[in-house]
């Protein structure tokens, strides 16, 4: 259960500097499912407030008709309504994996990190797509590549492994979560903000020069 997971890493919840109390989250339908639990789990671990912007079928640069934002524009929307955060959680990629070639995926991820900007930490939740493992591996490899380039800024929560190891967390499609799965997903994301991300303030620095890739069209 969510409380059991949270109990394992409460120590250090107050070590982050006092002013860094706001956290922001951008996601898709998986994040929508965690909304009933996510703010509470963040609060439990010491976060003062959370701004969460999620919508079904959202991609980094794409959206459904009813969604007012892509992943990229959701960053601006959160900043305009709730202010900025030192730490941003990004839970996107399920609706991007498989629609771009590898180099274009890397570029798209870089674009999202650049949208958040230097001087911020990014915790990115990777994807679990057991029916299309090639897509999953290519997307998660792309995330790992960008994180390796930006090792002081970007950190990855390995949802793919957690989902594989906990099948009861998954709904019938093996992508979305069961009720208990959403509770646990919210919990592990909250824990990761304390265990994977440094407690010291992010360093304000110039943007990293991005490698240039040729964009591909959607498959």
Counted by DSSP, the helix tally is 7
The succession of helices and strands, N to C, reads HEHEHEHEHEHH
Over all CA atoms, what is the radius of gyration?
Answer: 16 Å
- From the spread of the alpha carbons, the general shape counts as globular
**What portion of residues is helical?**
40-55%
Question: Poorly predicted ranges (pLDDT <50, ≥5 residues)?
Answer: 1-19, 206-219
Q: How far apart are the termini? A: 39 Å
CATH names the topology as Rossmann fold
CATH top level label: Alpha Beta
| Spatial sequence of strands, sheet with the most strands | 2-1-3-4-5
Task: Please indicate the count of domains.
Answer: 1
| Helix-strand category | alpha/beta
Oligomer: single chain
User: Average pLDDT across residues?
Assistant: 87
Strand content: 5-15%
| CATH arch. level architecture | 3-Layer(aba) Sandwich
> How many β strands by DSSP?
5
**CATH homology group:** SGNH hydrolase
The major sheet is characterized as: 5 strands, parallel
């Amino acid at each position: 259960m969510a409380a059991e997971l949270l109990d394992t890493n409460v120590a250090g919840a107050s070590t982050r500097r006092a002013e860094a109390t706001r956290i922001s989250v951008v996601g898709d339908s998986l994040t929508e499912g965690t909304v009933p639990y996510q703010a509470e789990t963040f609060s439990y671990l010491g976060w003062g407030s959370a701004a969460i912007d999620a919508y079904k079928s959202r991609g980094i640069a794409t959206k459904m008709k009813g969604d007012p934002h892509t992943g990229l524009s959701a960053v601006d929307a959160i900043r305009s309504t709730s202010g900025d955060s030192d730490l941003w959680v990004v839970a996107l990629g399920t609706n991007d994996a498989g629609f771009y070639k590898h180099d274009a995926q890397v570029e798209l991820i870089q674009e999202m990190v650049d949208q958040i900007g230097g001087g911020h930490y990014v915790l990115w939740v990777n994807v679990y797509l057991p029916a299309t493992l090639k897509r999953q591996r290519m997307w998660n490899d792309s995330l790992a590549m960008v994180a390796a380039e930006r090792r002081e800024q970007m950190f990855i929560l390995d949802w793919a492994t957690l989902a594989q190891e906990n099948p009861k967390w998954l709904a019938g499609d093996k992508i979305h979560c069961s009720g208990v799965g959403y509770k646990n997903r919210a919990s592990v994301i909250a824990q990761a903000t304390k265990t994977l991300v440094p407690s010291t303030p992010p360093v304000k620095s110039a943007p990293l020069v991005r490698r240039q890739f040729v964009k591909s069209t959607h498959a």
